[in-house]
UniProtKB/TrEMBL annotation, chain A:
GO terms for molecular function: hydrolase activity. PANTHER family: AB HYDROLASE SUPERFAMILY PROTEIN YCLE, MONOACYLGLYCEROL LIPASE. InterPro entries: AB_hydrolase_1 (IPR000073), AB_hydrolase_fold (IPR029058), AB_hydrolase_sf (IPR050266). Pfam families: Abhydrolase_1. The keyword Hydrolase applies. This is Alpha/beta hydrolase. Residues 25-244 form the AB hydrolase-1 domain. Keywords: Hydrolase.
Automatic annotation (TrEMBL), chain B:
PANTHER family: BLR5498 PROTEIN (PTHR30137:SF8), LUCIFERASE-LIKE MONOOXYGENASE (PTHR30137). It comes from Tepidiforma flava. InterPro entries: Bact_Lucif_Oxidored, Luciferase-like_dom, Luciferase-like_sf. Keywords: Monooxygenase, Oxidoreductase. Residues 43-343 form the Luciferase-like domain. The lineage of its organism: Bacteria, Bacillati, Chloroflexota, Tepidiformia, Tepidiformales. This is LLM class flavin-dependent oxidoreductase. The keyword Oxidoreductase applies. It comes from the Bacteria.
Amino acid sequence: MEQLTITLRPGSVPVHFFRGGAGEPVLYLHHLAGLQGWEPAIDELATRFEVFAPYHPGWGPSQGLEDLDSGLDLVLHYVDFLDALGLDRVHVVGHSIGAWIAAELAAIRPDRVNRLALFTPIGIWDDAIRGEDPFAQNPLRATEVLFADPARRENLILRDGTVDPLENYVQEMKDLKAAAKFLWPIPDTGVIKRLPRIKAPTILVGASGDRVVPPAYIPIWKANIPGSEAKTVLDAGHLVNLEQPSRFATIAGSWFLRPN
Amino acid sequence: MKFHWFNLMPYPYLPDDFRQNHRSVWVDVDSRLYDPVKGHRIYHDYLDLLEFAAELGFDGIGVNEHHANAYGLMPSPALMAATLARRTRDVSIVLLGMSIALYNPPTRVAEEMAMLDVISGGRLIAGFPVGTSMDTNYAFGANPATLRERYQENHDLIIRAWTDPDVFPWNGKFNKLRYVNIWPRPIQKPHPPIWIPGGGSIETWDFCAERGYNYSYLSFSGFKRAAQLMNGFHDRVAELGLPFNPYQASFAQQIIVAESEAEAEESYFPHAKYFFERCLHIYPGFADAPGYRTEATILAGLKAQVGGVSSGGAVGKSFRQCVDEGFLIAGTPDQVTEQMEHLITSLRVGHVFCLLHIGDMPREKCEKSTRLFAEKVMPRLRHLWQGYEDRWSPKPLPAQLMAEPRPIRQPVQA
């Protein structure tokens, strides 16, 4: 594994990303609370694929949120990212807000996406399935709601007290601010009308304990993406990758290995 | 030294178990707690108090904007200012203010404030708050990631709308207007004095210092905790090589004046408790949306304006503790005069917003306290800051140009 940066065009701010493993290329698009480094789920996926895991602009060390105003800007950012890396066609695993970006990418540039795995996708709204507001949580425990078991936040995000609480708080607020830019105040991104354009074979993965995007959203996504399949991971909340890393890697990996 | 009478207009009938059985006074507060028939009387009591303060010689009377809450019943402060403009003569109308990032297009603010300046004969102070996170992000759905950028653009548009006599196009990021041309235009030139109510945002210091606006620090934590922020502002002014002027700074303080200290505690303090325990009972998840505060402000360790970690500061404290810690200035006229002088000189402010109505205080008690302040405290503090020019108060029309509204003659039919 290596942590790298790449500049998409002269003068633009660098994109920070991780790269590791060998095999067919996989683009990993992280959830709304960012990346916790080279996570166990990514590490496991990298036993069979070459994984590229960038920080979205505005999350972690990646700058440039102010240059992006819409989902289209995010899609173009990732088209440029793939171009810069010389990657013509990739499998994409998107999680939470990353699943929304992945779906937009597959809908707008079907030629660049091989197979698609969307975990706890956010971006469709139904008044009858509200879930909890990820942006209206006690700021000192803002990410608890993203776990089926709130106590797991302590181990998985705070990393057993090695992180300074103020620093962690600032980082969480910064990551959530970036997510809010695209999802505030209601995460209705309009992606639902573009989903039928997706050509990539797609699997949708919900989490039984997702309090932010209740699993009842999964059938709506499935109904709008032609030929897609769906699965549910048990004992996991919105951040499936952290609560069930092995399930996450296995589901995505098996999906990408399945012949088209 | 200038004194302004300010009322938050809280809803005074929140139940005793409000804190236990409701999670927030803001955003998702149960609307079934509001009784509009009682509300009718409350508005008139509150407006009467503002007019009463004007008669007693306060320099300004103030109103502000909040949404979806029982803390302050003025979602439209311009409506309040409009009725006050008609019913008062000399006093400044301190509109503190309209949350300029929430108006679309913000030329609406330029228009309404111009109307108020014209109706009042040039007595308007134009406040441009960002607004609390509860009001802007949650109640009005403004995106916290772009709120401050939008605020900045809307500010620039309003100032241009007031000062550019020609029709102009505005091609902003948040506002696109082919024809900007507001009617009416303000009486005060180039525009009414601008005051920026700030809580704990350090960017506000630079904004006020560089543009020569009044920095109005609003806090319910009292003057002893305010020194850090007030000094931060004065320091920025000095660092920019600008002259110190106390009238460029203002501070809001809750005040109780009574015949005796015992009366202040027994008769008045329960209303302050109502305010601290019910009106500031804000769910922390609504106090500080991600992005509402800048990273620089968070790292400076500053608290959000209202709510957040600081809102519970006075809860459960005794009268003595509240006075000692500065949450309240309270006591006899002599005691209040002494504490006020300490506040004014330690914070170096030329304007104080006197919050003499607190929580569920009934009108008669408030009138008594307000009168004591006006007659026995204010005159003894007027001499402070003599020699400094107050460039942040309105410049009204001369008396001979002021219109005389027709008095109300019709009795209410039984």
